[in-house]
Amino acid sequence: KIINRGIVRGGGRTTLHSAVRVEPGATGVESSVDWSSLMLDAESRAETAPSIELDEADAEITQEGSVRKVSDEMLFYMASRGVTKDEALRMVVLGTAEVVTKRIPIEYAVEVDRLIELELGGGIG
């Protein structure tokens, strides 16, 4: 299973090149690629280049992905619930990262969350 999350701002770019290859005779293979990119401004970009090469019929390969942005509607909804724009963005970014951080050792997850918090301290957008 390949899981990728990209969070981009400031005209940044995230690129994912994934390759799944199933050789002849490799039966019962299961593989999935799950990617998502969160754009925090209009200048940022996300690129994907997935590759699936199947030389065996007995394989189950899935792929799903999305590119999304923090919409004005979402910010309006959160504001109507008393959540500031900065806090709403923080929640969305940490939620996006959590898909990955919950799968790594806790000491690394804590450090990733700390680095995200430091980055967000400078403000987003």
Describe the structure.
- The chain is an alpha/beta fold and 125 residues long.
- It is built from 3 helices and 5 strands; from the N terminus they run βββββααα.
- The strands form 2 sheets. The protein has a 3-stranded parallel β-sheet, with helices on one face. Strands 2-4 form a two-stranded parallel sheet.
- Helix 2 packs antiparallel against helix 3.
Secondary structure layout:
Layout: E1 2-8, E2 13-22, E3 29-39, E4 45-54, E5 59-69, H1 72-80, H2 85-101, H3 106-121
Helix pairs in contact: 2-3
Percent of residues in helices: 25-40%
Which structural class is indicated by helix and strand composition?
alpha/beta
Span between termini = 32 Å
Number of domains: 2
What is the strand tally? 5
The order of strands across the largest sheet is 1-3-5
Order of helical and strand elements: EEEEEHHH
Unreliable segments of 5+ consecutive residues? none
Oligomeric category: single chain
Rg computed from alpha carbons, rounded to a whole number of angstroms = 18 Å
Strand count, sense and barrel status of the largest sheet are: 3 strands, parallel
The percentage of residues in β strands lies in: 35-45%
Tally of helical runs:
3
What characteristic shape results from the CA principal axes? elongated
Keywords:
125 residues; alpha/beta; 2 domains; three-stranded parallel β-sheet; two-stranded parallel sheet; 3 helices; 34% helix
